[in-house]
Amino acid sequence: MTDDPENQGNDEFEFPPTLREKLSSGHPTPSVPAEFSARLLASAKVGYALRMRRRRIVRWSAVIGSAAAIIILSLLFLLPNHRSSPHLAQAGDVNHDGRVDILDAYVVAKAISTGGKLDPVWDVNHDGVVDQKDIDWIAAAAVNVTGNPTGALPQ
Amino acid sequence: MVAAINAGDLSAFDALFERHRDWVARLAMRFTSNSSDALDVLQETFTYLFGKFPGFVLSAKMTTFLYPVVRNLSIAARKRRLPGLPAEGFDAAGPELASNDDDEFLSMIRRLPEIQREVLLMRFVHDMSLAEIAGAIGIPEGTVKSRMHNAIETLKGDERLRKYFD
Hints:
The complex is a heterodimer of chains A (155) and B (166). Chain A has helices at residues 17-25, 34-78, 86-92, 102-114, 132-143. Chain A has 155 residues and is an all-alpha fold. Chain A folds into two domains: 32-79; 86-152, Type 1 dockerin domain (Orthogonal Bundle), CATH 1.10.1330. The N and C termini of chain B lie far apart (43 Å). Chain B is mostly helical. Chain B has helices spanning 2-6, 11-32, 35-50, 62-81, 95-99, 104-111, 114-124, 130-137, 141-157, 162-165. At the A-B interface, helix 1 and helix 2 of A face helix 2, helix 3, helix 6, helix 7 and helix 8 of B.
């Protein structure tokens, strides 16, 4: 544009000023009502503010979501195993290490196979006898991911 | 101004609009030959431009960016007004020139090939630099120069206009 210094002096074409004026006057600039301009600018600013707000919401949602994910993952990995309820964990927690795992099943299996002393609390299926079914129950509870070891009881 | 708006400075909207309003209005008027359509195109152009903020990256001059926007919106506006108008063969000189046969100069301009007339008008009516013209219509700067040269030579070659070039 004419008032742009970058445009000055780059015109290597000679064009008579008279013709330039004729050309220019043949293409008038329509008048733009002030009210029209004001309305357009107001609308643009409202739209801009909405987009800025939406951007902030998206940005904060991402931050909050990431923080929540980190907290949940931290709880899952750092806190003790929550997959078994305290009552059932106690029922199968033969070695009293606070969790029901395959080591508990191993302790019972070893005691049965070697003819060692069988603790009555190892009768986790409450059928009156400590046997292979109790080992299976503890093993199932150890690998159960539903939080309900009884649901995984072997038939 | 673009950076200021991206940074949240709303007053820069006014400055940007103020700076390019008349340029866009004049260009739209040339394309549409109708002041009502020209205002519609003006509004749509700035709505489009402002809608790109925040996050707008201007990789060329603003006029280079705006020219094709105004042109396409003007074609759409003219098609709305004149539904039979083909998309191809859009006369960038606008019918205002085409209807004004009184002036020999304007008559000569009308008879120039469209590709020559367009660069001439972009340079001498809309004050765009050769680089801006090249960017706006997507052709090499050398081609712009060639078209401009041919247009001016054609005008010079007309004996009715020779007096202006002497």
